[in-house]
Amino acid sequence: MYAVLIDAPEAEAARATAFWSAALGVTAEPFTPQPQFTTLHEALPGLVTAVQAVDDAPRIHLDFETDDVEAETARLLALGAERISQWQECQVLRVPGGHVVCVLPVETDPETFRAQANVWP
């Protein structure tokens, strides 16, 4: 698991960011490379937590980080997920129960990733 994203409609993203940063007692910091994201610094230790401005319904989704997006996507599809779309190098899936997850390439420092990653047989 890499991140928890709080998706908010674009028109509500600033208010959602203000709410979540105050509710969680953390600092909100714009993520310059991708302006639709605002990081909630240290909201969930060990995980990236951010508000994402979306052109969609509000929801919370999880990001899975992997060194093999294709293999991890195939594994999750075999477990019952359905492919929704692709965004950049990320695969967007809907899992049983209706939640959205994204499978993305390694974002963490590679040494940390290797030390903490699950390895599937």
UniProtKB/TrEMBL annotation:
**Gene3D superfamilies per UniProt:** 2,3-Dihydroxybiphenyl 1,2-Dioxygenase, domain 1
Domain named Glyoxalase-like: residues: 4-104
What Pfam family does this protein match (any one)? Glyoxalase_6
Q: Which domain of life is it from?
A: Bacteria
Name assigned to this protein? Glyoxalase/bleomycin resistance/dioxygenase family protein
Q: What is the protein's species of origin?
A: Streptomyces malaysiensis subsp. samsunensis
